Structures are given as C-alpha cells and as structure tokens.
From TrEMBL, chain A:
Belongs to the thiolase-like superfamily. Thiolase family. One of its GO terms (molecular function) is acetyl-CoA C-acyltransferase activity. Mitochondrial trifunctional enzyme catalyzes the last three of the four reactions of the mitochondrial beta-oxidation pathway. The mitochondrial beta-oxidation pathway is the major energy-producing process in tissues and is performed through four consecutive reactions breaking down fatty acids into acetyl-CoA. Among the enzymes involved in this pathway, the trifunctional enzyme exhibits specificity for long-chain fatty acids. This is Trifunctional enzyme subunit beta, mitochondrial. PROSITE patterns: THIOLASE_1, THIOLASE_2, THIOLASE_3.
From TrEMBL, chain B:
Its EC number is 1.1.1.211, 4.2.1.17. NCBIfam families: fa_ox_alpha_mit (TIGR02441). One of its GO terms (biological process) is fatty acid beta-oxidation. The keyword Mitochondrion applies. The gene is hadhab. Heterotetramer of 2 alpha/HADHA and 2 beta/HADHB subunits; forms the mitochondrial trifunctional enzyme. Also purified as higher order heterooligomers including a 4 alpha/HADHA and 4 beta/HADHB heterooligomer which physiological significance remains unclear. The mitochondrial trifunctional enzyme interacts with MTLN. The record marks E132, E154 as: Important for long-chain enoyl-CoA hydratase activity. Coiled coil: none annotated. The keyword Protease does not apply. GO terms for molecular function: enoyl-CoA hydratase activity; long-chain (3S)-3-hydroxyacyl-CoA dehydrogenase (NAD+) activity; NAD+ binding; transferase activity. This is Trifunctional enzyme subunit alpha, mitochondrial. Keywords: Acetylation, Fatty acid metabolism, Lipid metabolism, Lyase, Membrane, Methylation, Mitochondrion, Mitochondrion inner membrane, Multifunctional enzyme, NAD, Oxidoreductase, Phosphoprotein, Transferase, Transit peptide. Residues 345-522 form the 3-hydroxyacyl-CoA dehydrogenase NAD binding domain.
Length: 474, 744
C-alpha cells in the first residue's frame, strides 16, 4: 500500500512548488534554524486514496506557567476557556460552526469532571455543541485530537475543536477513606443517636488527608524514580542530561525572544495581570545545573529538578477540519494530520519509552524513514527520558530484542529536534502538551520549509503516541 | 562519557590468567575485585575461592595505584551463597573445623582492618560466610532485587556463623537484631537490611536498556560502588554514621550489664522453649555472642571458633546438613523435561486442598481453573486464594496490582467449559473411590488427549482410581499436605502404568509450585500416610492406656516432633484418621493395629472431628491460642480403656513406641520399593509429617541411633504387643551388620 501510494497520483501537486532540498544551511549548533528560510521540498504526499484529508487549521495555547503563580486562583475550566476563546479570536470561527469539542486532562477537578463541556459553555460556544473529556496521562490531548480525526474520518463531523488543560495549582485532596465512609454513613443515619455515635467514632487517623497519587498505580513507583532508572539502564550520564536540559531552555529562550512561539495567546487573568509569556524558561549554566542534588534516587541518581519538567498550569486548543470544509470556509490550513499510533509497554521498566516504540511504528505506517522527517517534536518529560529514547532508537540490539525489528530506525538528527524548546523549558501541563507539540510541528514546518514532522510522547501507564504531520502546500 | 572511563582503565591481565575464581582490574584508582566460581551456579567460599581472594587482596594492598576496592560477583544473581559445606564435612575432628573457622576469622580481620576501604557490592544471595565477608568490608551497597537477600542460615544447618559473624553482627545491628538474625536464620531483603543498618546504600534493579537488564544492573551496581569507594577515600562519605536518637538510647540501654544479662536470659529461655533443648546450635550462638560482649573480642572470637568446631561434630548438624542436601536433591526433576509444559491447569474441588493448590499455582504464570459443584463451595475457595494473596500484599511482599494481576489467571467455574484446553487436571474431591471414578470419567470426556489426570488423595491407591480411566498412563497421584501454601512437601505417586513423561510433567508442576518432591510407588497409604498410620494407632492405644493428650503431646514434641501426636490427630481430622486407619488396617492386616479404630469412630459420631469441628482431643475456642483437653473424651476413652504394661510404659518407652513404628514402616517402604531411596524417605518424613529435623529423618535416625539398638527396643515391645512391633527384614539386616548404613 505504502509503496503504491508514494509513487502515484498525489505527487504532482507538490512538484509545482518543488525547490531544492538544502541541508547545507543547517548547522549543528543549538542556536541555528530560528531564521531559516522558507523552503518546500519535492517529497511525496501522504494522502491515501479514499481517505479524507484532515487538516490542522490553527492551534493556540495559554502561556504555560509554573503552578502556583499567576493562575493560582483559577479553576481548570477557566484556563481551557481562555484557550478556546483564543482559538475563536484567532480563527474568527463562528461560535456555532463546530460539530464537537473534545478536551484532554489528567488530574480532574471533581466539580468539572467533564471539563470540555464546562469550558465550551463558558467560552461562549453554542450550547448545542456536544463535548466530552478524555484522559490518557500526558498524551490526553493527543487522544482528544485523534478522537476528532476519527470522527471526521468516519464522516460524523467536519469541524472539531480539540484541546487539553492541566491545572496543578489546585488538585483534589480527599478525606481519608475511613472519614469518607463515616461521612456517607452520616448521610444515611436516621436518628440523632446514630449520628452522634458515628461522629463519636471519628479518630485522629480519620483526619489524615489523601493526596492525589504521584506514583504509578500498578507499580507504586514515582515517575521521576522510573526515569532515573531508565536513564541508568541506557547509561545516560548526569552530564548528558544537564546538557540536554540546558539546550532545551536555551532554545526556548531564543524562540521566545524571536517571537516564534506564535501559538501563545495573551490572557488577562481575572484579578491579576495579563500574561503573554511562558514563565518557566530559565537558561542557566552547566555549573549551576551540576550543583543540584538528585531528586528521586539518592544519593547516586542522575535526575534532578533542573533536568525534569516542572509542574505547570496551562491549556491548549486546536481547530481540526476536513480539508474540503476548511477550504469551503475560506481557511488556509497549516498542516495535514496523517498517520498516528498509540503504543504501550511494561509500566515498570519501560514506563517512558513510548517514543522509542511509537516512532518506528508510525514511520512504517506512513512509509517514511527517519531521514524523511524534517521536524521532530518529542515530549520532554525528563532529559534522561529523552536521551534514553534516543539511544533506544539508535540501538539495533534494542530494536531486535524488544521491538521485533531487524534493524534500528536511528535517532533523530539533533538539528531537527525540539528546536523551539520543549516540555523541560516551556512547561508541561500534562493534558495540554499534545496540542502544543502538534501546533509547534505545523509552525516549524511553515517556518523551516520542511514537509514532514513527527510528534512523539510518552505517558504514565507505559503508554506512548506518535503522529506524522505533513506541511500544507503554501 | 564511557570512553572517558575506559581509557583510564587498565586490566591486570597477566595475573588473571592464573586465577579462575577471583580476578581484579583497576578502574582509575579503584580495584574492582570480581568473584566467579566457574564450576558452580553459585559462588561459595571454597578453599580455592579463599586462596585466590587472599592472593588478590595482597596484590591490591601492595598496588600503589589503588586507593580503594570494590568486591563484586560477576555471576548473575549471586553474591556469595555461603561457605562450602563440603569443606566442613571433610573434617574429622572439631579441632580441624575450629582451625577452618580461625582461618576465616583471620582473613576477615584483615579485610576489616584494611587501610584501603573495601566496598561490598551485593546482588543476589549474600548468605552465611558471604554475609560475614560483606560485614567485614567497610561499606555495603546492595541491589533492591528480590533475589538479593542477606542472612546467616548457619543455625538451620546446626552450625553458627563461624567467621566473625557472632562478633560483628551485634555491633552492627544491635544485640536483639543480631540474635534474631542468627537464631532464626531468616533471609533479610535488601530494603529491610538498609533499615537495620546492615547495608549502607541501595541500588535499584534496572530494566531493558542497551544490554540485558541483569547485565546492566550489575554494571550499574559496580559504577555506584566505585563512586562510594572514591567517596570514602576523599572523605565525602563518612564511615561513622550519624546516630539517631533511638539508636543512642538503645546503645545506652545495651551498655547496662543488667539489661544484657536479661536479654541473654530471655533469649535462652525462648530458645529452650522452641527447641526443647534438642538443638545445640542456638545455645552456642548465644554463648559466643555473650563471650565477645562480656569478655572482649579475643574471648569472643575464640569461643566462636571453638563452638563452631564442636557444633560441626554433632549428630544434629549432620542430620540438618543431610536434610539440606536432600532438599536440594528433591528440588530437581530426575525424570527430565516434560514433552509439553503445563500452561493450563484445572483443579476439581475448591475445598481447603483444591483452593490451596490453586493458590500456589496461579502466581507461577499458570492459568488455573478452579471448579466446584456449588457456588458456595467455589466462593469459599476463591476467597481462600484471594486471602492468601492479599495477606502477601499486607506484608508488602507483593503489590496490590501484582495481587490483582495474579488473580486474573484464576477462573472459578461450576462446569467443564474450557477443559478442552487443560494440560493437567488435579482432582481434590471427596476421598471416596466411587466419586473419584465418576469424576475421572466425566473429566476424560472433555479433556484433550495429552492432558494429565492427577489425583490428590492421601490414602486411596492410585491404581484403584486409575481403574476407571481409559488412559491409565496419564494418571498419577499428587499428594499435597495441608495447608498447601505452608507445607513444603509434595508426594507424587506413580503406578506401573504411569508414563515417564506424565511423571516428569507432574514433578515439573510441583517444582514450579515451589514444592520439595518425593516420587514414590503406589500402594495403600503410599509412603507418608503409611508411616503415619501405625504411629497414630500407637497414639490411640496410649490414650486408651490412660496417657493424657497433653502428656502425649509433650512426649512427642519432647522427642523433636513440631506437633504433638494428639494435636496432629486433631489437625489431620479425627474422621480422616479413622478413615485412613480403617482402610490401611484392611490393607495391611493386624500389623497396623494397636489402638482401637472404634475410639476414633465414636469420637466422630459425637462430633469430635478435630480442630475443624471445634472439638477433638482438645476443645478449640476461636480467637484463643491455648486449648484444653476435651472433657468428654474421658467417656470415650473410658469405654475402651486398656491397662498399660509398666514394662513398656516409661516416658522414654512411650516415645520409642511411637517412633519405632513410624521408622519401621518407613524402612519397610524402602524394602518394598515404594521409596526410591533413603534420601526421599527422610525428606518425606521431615517435610510432610514433621519427623524431628534434628534426627534428620527415619533413615538417618536408624544410622545415628543404631539399627541394633532400635531392634532391641522393638523386640521388647513385640513381646508385649505382638506383630505391631515386628522389625522388618531390612531393619534386621542393618541391625546384624553395623557397617550397613542408609546414608553413605
């Protein structure tokens, strides 16, 4: 299928915009690429006969802020509303022109468990638009997007708003199970005597609160601990991790200063100032980074607070449409959303290896090789996790032993990799990161003139996701 | 980064070539000493290992380029499993053993006083001499792997930690902790060891990376240990640990002589109560610890070495070491690899036995079907399996997720659906030949041709059960002991029609379930039940002769049985005992007589079925540990009262009447070919029936006690009671010729 697709009819359209593929302008240094010229290339398109072309029309996000800062007094749906309103504003989309709204989130606020619905109502969308919420840890908004893709492919919808939100400034902290049991029994108690005896049964132990689990349920291991073990398993050194973290922050700062992060909308926070920038980007020095003590495995671990992503508040939103509909409504799409895969592995020892498993699989589906990809956007949960994934992708032994492949696909070229920063520096609001990755790929393809982009991410539960994105002919 | 390390690494190749067990390389300024015994699956402190270690140690000390050392095993999953037992067994006098101990002490004293710090990097078992080696090092790093266990199991071999363990442990983990470790011999997992202060640092096992997880984990352990070694040298890591408040208080309290004396007293009393004074090792351990703490290290080390020498020459140690070797032998499948592994196992009957079998099977990666005929029976069984796993969750040996995941392999059902996929069916239905026949026919109608039919019965001959089978070569007996999750023994019974592959498969399943296995020939009561029956018959006679159940229990436990004869009858169930006594009585005739079966039958009629019915020889009150003699049993016994003969009724005679019948029957099983050999006979008796471990089993008992002395006693009893005490031919042969021995 793939071979046929590559060689036939769909090639011609792009030949018109054909232009030499200039690799020479790309250098190895971290500061490049920000001002690369727009070029398009003569690669095949990934459209499949009989399958609708689905396009990303626009993508936006609120500034990603360290939790506990300016957003501290909001609620999750407030952030999602801001992203939705930003999308409406940027696209001039009529408020009733959407068929369905899907949001991804991880830690759910119990009052707004279907945060998609509360946010879309609050953002002023027509109340006739159904909306639902999905969850799949750090790839929740990827699921929101692919759910939308599925609805369009199935012919059920033409216009989808997908997004993600995470709000770590406030998380549900529960009463203990004992206390809850007593309180529920109190509800049912009929006489004063019964009530008094229940109240009398409350002990100090009842009052211990229950915090949301930071650990994997199946293994009881925290993610940072697992990341440290993963880094050790792949022989990733502390130095490599600190270097990657520094790279992420440096690139993010450059991108921010150059105004490349155009998906960020400004947001007037009620009672506070207007925020327009991510506030977690902090380029430091290797000396500073080297001073930090390991955060999870003590004393010999390598994962520190500085080479891990931080707790973040933020929301994102994208407008996804069938190509015909987008064109009919007069939009100029940014990119095609092409093949995608979800993968899952052992949540204990391979918790964060989603990209290593997802990348070869999605490339095979799309009939592409690593070299075909112009833009990589991988979710950076931990610097050690990224380095481990890169090493896994570059290992024949790993490919053969754990993926049943004959050879490795190879690691992505660093000069194409996360050039505008990543989750380590921009921040990582769990549920919202997926849309940021996809939007960034689309923007980078436009800016850098590449044709294919690849998104890959890991998620709690040992799951992962990868998607191929194709530039929309300009 | 890696090339950076490797270019500063040079290995000491010429020295390595001569040595086979220990070698070392210098990484920067750290000597990495690697142990690997190429002749065995595990590392032991053999003569060869020790000699090479001393050689390497001398070189490391002399090497000016070396500042510190790391001691690590390059054998996957094993640090040092202990000293080489054969080394001790090769000695003929206690002086020789004392000398061995002193050499060990000397070597570890040198390690302890090494001017260059040595870090022990532990992955896998670190036991006995291995632990003593590790605690002589300046620092210990251990992996958090489930395989990593630390302990001093010497006491279980009737010995003591003889290379400084009794002297170093109290200082390291405190007096109570040290006694607990050395007197129980239990294995301590790495995380617990860290809490106790036995190891300084833990390393997590790694998952898949660019190498196999095992390989990379050892490499990582080595990297961390090297960091530690360097840290000690450049004073980043302090060897004198900061003491917590609790520790200071404890140290102060232990500094008071009166308190220490109280501890010795309490521990000694506890040991005497548990061991009835039958095991010398625990007392010698206490003695050695005391000598070191009260009279100083010189006396302590001397006492340790001398006591070690004395213990090595005791019959108890000999018996326990024999059991250890036997246990190792019974954990092997001498029938080879079965043609197809059992992946789907079905169990019929969700009673105590059936559910118990399910419990030990389901967590071994075998899909298990538990079938019963009623929802109530099935739910009870499922709850038993759940409880077994949940208790492990509470003890934190498994996570709640592992519990749930394991339970996902258990299917409870009332019908035969899915039996077409079964590789083996174990039936644990009621002990009635007709029911067993009906079941075997029903099952054979639904199972695939390769499926094995195993029957869990304690007395019915397998060939009688197999008579209803259309493929007797696939029928085998698997006799589990209750409670299945606690009792280690599995007695597998083959008929002359059972195929070798069927046996191989049954043994393979048993081994997977973690059992110690004996494979015996078919016959009424097989081996274990057949040995137990005459002893219980004798116990009943003793009750009839007016011996109080409590007295009877005291005499049997005083001989070394973990459970007294009267209590044992209650545990087995009086109804079961009656059933077995009657069946075997029919099969073996008057030889199995003694006590009147009617005693048991009357008890059953009155509802005294043992612990399960709340009343038997004793009255059991739920929640109460102590039990009183059932007052109503007087009437029953009164009805069948016998007059004791004072010539054979002394306390000692009572003990030997019980034991000699047991032992004689065991020897007869060997004589008749029911048993494959004395090793399996000893293992079956000790692990299945609680024959005194300090005696090493009936066969070793005959060797040690003397067949002639036993026959002499039996002849005396024979005069009074007749053929119940007639010694069998094999026993007589051994009595006649004292050079004949069952072991060696």
């Amino acid at each position: 299928m793939n071979a046929i697709r590559g060689k036939t009819s769909f090639k011609t359209a792009h030949l018109l915009q054909a232009c030499p593929y200039l690799t020479a302008t790309r250098s190895l240094s971290t500061s490049v690429q920000l001002h690369a010229q727009v070029q398009t290339k003569s690669k095949k398109t990934l459209a499949k006969p009989g399958v609708k072309n689905i396009v990303l029309v626009e993508g936006v996000r609120t500034p990603f802020l360290l939790s506990g800062t300016t957003y501290a007094d909001l609620m999750p749906h407030d952030l999602a509303r801001a992203a939705l309103q930003g999308l409406l504003h940027k696209t001039s989309l009529p408020k009733d022109a959407v068929d369905y709204i899907i949001y991804g989130t991880v830690i759910q606020e119990v009052k707004t468990s279907n945060v998609a619905r509360e946010a879309s109502l609050g953002a002023g969308f027509s109340d006739k638009i159904p909306s639902h919420t999905v969850t799949m840890a750090c790839i929740s908004s990827n699921v929101a997007m692919t759910t939308g893709v599925g609805l369009i492919t199935a012919g059920q919808c033409d216009t989808i708003v997908a997004g993600g939100v995470e709000f770590m400034s406030d998380v549900p902290i529960r009463h203990s199970r004992k206390m809850r049991k007593t309180m529920l029994a109190l509800n049912r108690a009929k006489t004063l005597g019964q009530r008094l005896s229940l109240i009398g049964s409350i002990r100090m132990a009842h009052l211990t609160p229950e915090l949301p689990a930071v650990a994997e349920f199946s293994t009881a291991e925290t993610m940072g601990h697992s990341a440290d073990r993963l880094a050790a398993a792949f022989g990733v050194t502390r130095l490599e991790q600190d270097e990657f973290a520094l790279r992420s922050h440096t690139l993010a700062k450059q991108a921010q200063d150059a105004g490349l992060l155009s998906d960020v909308i400004s947001f007037k926070v009620p009672g506070r100032d207007t925020v327009a920038k991510d506030n977690g980007i902090r380029p430091s020095s290797m000396e500073q980074l080297a001073k930090l003590k390991p955060a999870f495995i003590k004393p010999h671990g390598t994962v520190t607070a500085a080479n891990s992503s931080f707790l973040t508040d933020g929301a994102s939103a994208v407008l996804i449409m069938s190509e015909e509909k987008a064109l009919a409504m007069g939009y100029k799409p940014k990119a095609y959303l092409r093949d995608f895969v979800f993968v899952s592995q052992d949540p204990k020892d391979q918790l964060l290896l989603g990209p290593a498993y997802g990348t070869p699989k999605v490339l095979a589906r799309a009939g592409l090789t690593m070299d075909d990809i112009d833009v990589f956007e991988f979710h950076e949960a931990f610097a050690g996790q990224i380095m481990a994934n890169l090493k896994a992708l570059d290992s024949d032994w790993f490919a053969q032993t754990y993926m049943g492949r004959k050879v490795k696909v190879g690691a992505p070229a660093m000069e194409k990799f996360n050039l505008w920063g990543g989750s380590l520096s921009l921040g990582h609001p769990f549920g919202a990161t997926g849309c940021r990755l996809v939007t960034t790929v689309a923007h980078r393809l436009l800016k850098e003139g590449g044709q294919y982009g690849l998104v890959a991410a890991c998620a709690a539960g040992g799951q992962g996701h990868a998607m191929v994105i194709e530039a929309y002919p300009q | 980064m890696f090339s950076y390390i490797s270019c500063r690494t040079f290995s000491v190749a010429p020295a390595m070539s001569a040595r086979t067990h220990v070698n070392y390389e210098v990484k920067e300024d750290v000597a990495v000493i690697r142990m690997n015994d190429p002749t065995s699956k595990v590392n032991t402190l053999s003569v060869q290992m020790q000699n090479e270690m001393i050689e390497v140690f001398n070189e490391v000390l002399a090497n000016d380029a070396v500042q510190s050392a790391v001691l690590i095993s390059s054998k996957p999953g094993c640090f040092i499993a202990g000293a080489d037992i054969n080394m001790i067994q090769a000695c003929n006098t206690s002086e020789e053993v004392t000398k061995l101990s002193q050499e060990g002490q000397k070597m570890f004293a040198r390690i302890e006083n090494s001017p260059k710090p040595i870090v022990a990097a532990i992955n896998g078992p670190c036991l006995g001499g291995g632990l003593e080696f590790a605690i002589a090092c300046q620092y210990r790093v251990a992996t958090k792997s489930k395989k990593t266990v630390l302990g001093t199991p010497e006491v279980m071999l009737g010995l003591l930690p003889g290379a400084g363990g009794t002297q170093r442990l109290p200082k390291m983990v405190g007096i109570p902790g040290a006694f607990d470790m050395m007197l129980t011999g239990r294995n301590i997992r790495a995380d617990k060891a860290k809490k106790m202060g036995l190891v300084h640092q833990l390393v997590d096992p790694l998952g898949p990376g660019l190498k196999s997880p095992e390989e990379r984990t050892i490499e990582y352990l080595e990297e961390v240990a090297i960091q530690c070694a360097k840290g000690i040298v450049n004073k980043k890591i302090s060897l004198t640990k900061e003491k917590g408040m609790m520790q200071k208080v404890q140290d102060y309290v232990m500094g008071i002589e009166f308190v220490r004396q109280q501890i010795y007293k309490t521990v000694t009393a506890k040991v005497m109560k548990m061991s009835k004074g039958l095991y010398p090792a625990p007392l010698k351990i206490i003695e050695s610890v005391k000598a070191g703490l009260e009279q100083g290290p010189d006396s302590g080390y001397l006492a340790e070495a001398q006591n070690f020498g004395k213990l090595a020459m005791t019959s108890e140690s000999n018996a326990l070491i024999g059991l250890y070797h036997g246990q190792v032998a019974c954990k092997k499948n001498r029938f080879g690899v079965p043609e197809r592994p059992v992946k789907n196992l079905a169990i019929l009957g969700a009673g105590l036995m059936g559910a118990g079998i399910a419990q030990v099977t389901v967590d071994k990666g075998i899909h298990t079907v538990l079938k019963d005929t009623t929802v109530e029976g099935l739910s009870r069984g499922q709850q038993q399996v759940y409880k077994g796993l949940n208790d492990k969750t509470k003890k934190k040996t498994i996570t709640s997720f592992e519990r749930d995941f394991t339970l996902a392999s258990l299917t409870g059902q009332l019908d035969y659906s899915g039996f077409e996929k079964a590789d083996m069916v174990i039936e644990a239905v009621f002990e009635d030949l007709n029911i067993k026949h009906r079941v075997i026919k029903e099952v054979e109608a639904v199972i695939p041709p390769h499926c094995i039919f195993a029957t869990n019965t304690s007395a019915l001959p397998i060939k009688d059960i197999a008579a209803a089978s259309i493929r007797p070569e696939k029928v085998i007996g698997m006799h589990y002991f209750s409670p299945v999750d606690k009792m280690q023994l599995l007695e597998i019974i083959t008929t002359d029609k059972t195929s070798k592959d069927t046996t191989a498969s049954a043994v393979a399943v048993g081994l997977k379930q973690g059992k110690v296995i004996i494979v015996v020939g078919d016959g009424p009561g097989f081996y274990t039940t057949r040995c137990l029956a005459p002893m219980l018959a004798e116990a009943v006679r003793l009750l009839q002769e007016g011996v109080d159940p409590k007295k009877l229990d005291a005499l049997t436990t005083g001989f070394g049985f973990p459970v007294g004869a009267a209590t044992l009858a209650d545990e087995v169930g009086i109804d079961v005992a009656a059933h077995v006594a009657e069946d075997l009585g029919k099969a073996f005739g008057s030889r199995f007589g003694g006590g009147n079966v009617e005693v048991l039958k009357t008890m059953v009629e009155k509802g005294f079925k043992g612990r399960k019915s709340g009343k038997g020889c004793y009255v059991y009150t739920p929640g109460l540990k102590s039990k009183d003699v059932n007052p109503d049993i007087e009437d029953v016994l009164g009805k069948y009262k016998l007059t004791p003969n004072p010539l054979v009724s002394s306390d000692s005679d009572v003990q030997y009447r019980l034991v000699s019948r047991f032992v004689n029957e065991a020897v007869m099983c060997l004589q008749e070919g029911i048993l494959n050999g004395p090793v399996e006979g000893d293992i079956g008796a000790v692990f299945g029936l609680g024959f005194p471990p300090c005696l090493g089993g009936p066969f070793r008992f005959v060797d040690t006690f003397g067949a002639n002395k036993l026959v002499e006693k039996m002849k005396r009893y024979e005069e009074v009671y007749g053929n119940h005490f007639t010694p069998c031919q094999l026993l007589l042969d051994h009595a006649k010729d004292s050079s004949k021995r069952f072991h060696k």
